[in-house]
Structure formats: C-alpha cells, structure tokens
Amino acid sequence: MSEMKTLSVQKRDALGKGPNRRLRTEALVPGVYYTPDGTNILVQMQTNPLNKIYGQVGRTNVFNLEIEDNGNKVSYPVFIWDAQYHHIKGNFTHLDFYGVDLNKEIDIKVRLKFTGTSIGVKGGGKMEIYREEVILRAKPEAMPRFVEVEITDFDLGTNLRAADLKLPEGVSIVYKTNFSILSVMAKDKSKEAEGDI
C-alpha cells in the first residue's frame, strides 16, 4: 500500500457568498470537511496544490486532509465527495471532503475504463455499453480509481454483467440485480437487448 497523499488546508470562520468570493480573488478555494461523527469544519485551500492532488486521487482515492488551525495541524483521511466548478473557467469554486474510517468499508461510484477493441466489433458487430460507472464497496485505501475492462476477446454474443467484473482483492460490486454492463451483438440485434439494462 503506497503512502497516502496529503493536502494542506487552513481552517476558516467566515460564511457566505461575500467571504467566499474574496477567497477566490486570492486564488483560495473554500471547502467543508464533513467528519465521520457528523460535525463540519470550514476550510480554505490554495488552488495549485488542490489541482495537483485532484489529478492524483480524483474522487475515489483516499488521502490526508491536513487542517491548520492557529498553528496546530491535524490530518484526517478523506475523499473528495463533491466539487463545484466555475461555469466558464472550469476551475474549482468549492470542495466537500468526506471523512472516513480506514478500517470500515464504504461505497463509492467508480468509473469503468474500457480498453482494447472487441473482436466481435471487428467482425462487423456492435457493442452497446449500458453502464460506465458502478458502485464498489471496499475499505478506503483499497478503493481503485477506476476498473479496467479489457474487451479485446469479447465476441458476438458476449454479455458482460456486474458479477463478471474482475475486481482487486478486497473490493466488491454493489447491486440488487446482476445488471448488464455491455453486450456485443449483430447490428440488427442491438435494439432487442436494450430492455436488458
């Protein structure tokens, strides 16, 4: 297990649009840390370190949020739970951090990354993708950033379902019914499979 990344932030007191707007003019981003016991801590952070760690962990990997308050620094394991962006510039305008217990499993929505080219598609078929994300359950440090699905050997008639996904050790998929993720079929059969989602 690699060492967790750390984002250093500062505790803040001011609430509302005015104070938040002033923070953004100083290249600072407001945020909230939601602790496991249900309390909230208001924080602010510099844009560049935030962009760097987001590029490294995304929304599925746990990292340390180091909060500075009057010279004291305390670290908490967190995920980025929600992120808001400027509608034109695309930069962060607000972050929500979700505190976790590293010893308890959590559920997180994780992206599927399809790699390769299906032999069924090469042979003239069509691949229908029904899900591009799935909900996984794991302890925070075991949660993958994405799940790679190698589709090269998928021939006509392949129907990949949730239970068929190859997941890392300690990671399971959450579902009520064993839903289809993708199908490879003859082009004239694609409409018939749409009901099996």
How would you portray this structure in words?
By secondary structure, the protein is mostly beta strands. It has two domains: 6-99, Ribosomal Protein L25, Chain P (Beta Barrel); 106-195, RNA Polymerase Alpha Subunit, Chain A, domain 2, CATH 2.170.120. It has three helices and 13 strands; from the N terminus they run βαββαββββαββββββ. The strands form three sheets. Strands 1-3-2-6-5-4 form a six-stranded mixed β-barrel. A four-stranded mixed sheet has the order 10-7-9-12, with no helix packed on it. The mean pLDDT is 88.
Keywords:
197 residues, mainly beta, Ribosomal Protein L25, Chain P, RNA Polymerase Alpha Subunit, Chain A, domain 2, 2 domains, six-stranded mixed β-barrel, four-stranded mixed sheet, 3 helices, 13 strands, 43% strand
